[in-house]
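Entry:
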Amino acid sequence: MKINKRFIFSFVAPFMILISSFGLILRNNTKKIFYLPIGLMGISIILEKGIKRKFERKKILKKIKFFQKVK
């Protein structure tokens, strides 16, 4: 049975945020700054996917409306 790569990659961003939150909570004050970039990258990946999906849906809706007007 093959595992879909998209399925695995969908867990990467939340896992990055989880690692970052554990690092920020459990580490000493001097080492906390090292976990901040991985958390920010996880958040940016999730936001980018959401924004991209929104614009793609709008683009498809515009095409549907255009073809309905042509008929």
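Residues 5-70 form one domain.
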